[in-house]
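User: Here's a chain of 264 residues. Predict its fold as tokens.
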Amino acid sequence: YFVMFGVFLGIAMGFDLISKEKETRSLKTLLSHPVFRDEIVNGKAIASALVLAIALGATIAVSVAILLVMGIVPTVDEFCAILMFTGISTMFVLTYFSLALMMSTVAPDSGTALISTLAIFLLLSSAVPILGWTAAEMIAGPLPASPVDAQGSLYISKSVDPSEFEQYEREMQSYWEGRAAASSLINLLSPNVNYQKTALAVTDPKIAVTMDNNPYSFVEGPPETQPGLDEILGRIWANVVALIALPCVFFSAAYVTFMRMDIR
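Assistant: Prediction complete.
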């Protein structure tokens, strides 16, 4: 629910920031005053980002207040996790806000900006994970050939060298590791996947460390003890970097486009 709420909140804040000014022709009047272009786009972005941060902060504060009223007092570690979750959620919302701001700068009107933003949202949230797994399958190639006999059953005869089956096990392990790595690399383009992994690392660390388990392995699983922060970051550091980098990329594109825009 929060993913959908955050996405539409970010899009609603940014899809008409620039396009509405172009439609009403107030942007030309605004630029006729002694104000630089970067001040306009930076001011709109900073103000909207602050509004989003305040809204999310207020939501989390109300949630914590409800916990206290119910007699549930978070520990220091739990309170730190709440703060980290708030920061992660803010970056996720800012990702789609900056995407909407970019499309508002590029599109000729607000309607086009909204439709384009929603289309890209569907692409990043749904199509990328599906295409990522398909592309990873193509990159990894066919499955290793299994040692089968003429009837199609596994070699279990004593005449068969057991090392052949062990070699097959190692090849399958390596195949699925490479396939999972390729899929995870492509999924870095999806803000939803990055948010899911980073938020889960904060709210449920034991499950978070199993997210990229080798699907061919039957020995991995949730650890008995709580994993440390270094172990968790070692598994999701790329998702954390992508969660921070994507809004920066979208805003940079919006900034450069607005600075080079021909306004008549």
